[in-house]
């Protein structure tokens, strides 16, 4: 029950977050382990104004299932 309520909260808050420009993009370098040479960059999206949601592991699946992921992008 708690997980279902949480998912509904995230789903309801996503459109407001998108329209309120509440997402921020961070870039994380990817390095080769043995040479420490830069081999790429990973883009990470964070929900900056949503206390309690925090991780992308929680809101990205909901955004994908509701097709709001393209609006975030």
3D architecture notes:
With 73 residues, the chain is α+β, with helices and mostly antiparallel strands. Helices cover 44% and strands 26% of the residues. It has a two-stranded antiparallel ribbon. Helix 1 crosses helix 2.
Secondary-structure element sequence? Answer: HEEHH
State the end-to-end CA separation.
30 Å
- CA-based gyration radius: 15 Å
- The SS-based structural class is alpha+beta
Shape: elongated
Question: Total strand count, please?
Answer: 2
Low-confidence stretches: none
Strand order of the largest sheet: 1-2
Rounded average pLDDT: 89
Question: Quick summary of this structure?
Answer:
By secondary structure, this protein is an alpha+beta fold. The protein is 44% helix and 26% strand.
Observed structural traits:
two-stranded antiparallel ribbon; elongated; 73 residues; alpha+beta
Helix-strand blueprint:
Layout: H1 2-19, E1 23-31, E2 38-47, H2 56-65, H3 69-72
Antiparallel strand pairs: 1-2
Helix pairs in contact: 1-2
């Amino acid at each position: 029950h708690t997980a279902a309520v949480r998912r509904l909260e995230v789903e309801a808050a996503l459109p407001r977050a998108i329209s309120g420009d509440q997402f921020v993009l961070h870039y994380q370098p990817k390095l080769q382990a043995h040479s420490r040479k830069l081999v790429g960059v990973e883009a990470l999206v964070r929900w900056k104004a949503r206390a309690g949601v925090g991780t992308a592991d929680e809101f990205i699946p909901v955004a994908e299932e509701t097709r709001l992921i393209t609006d975030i992008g």
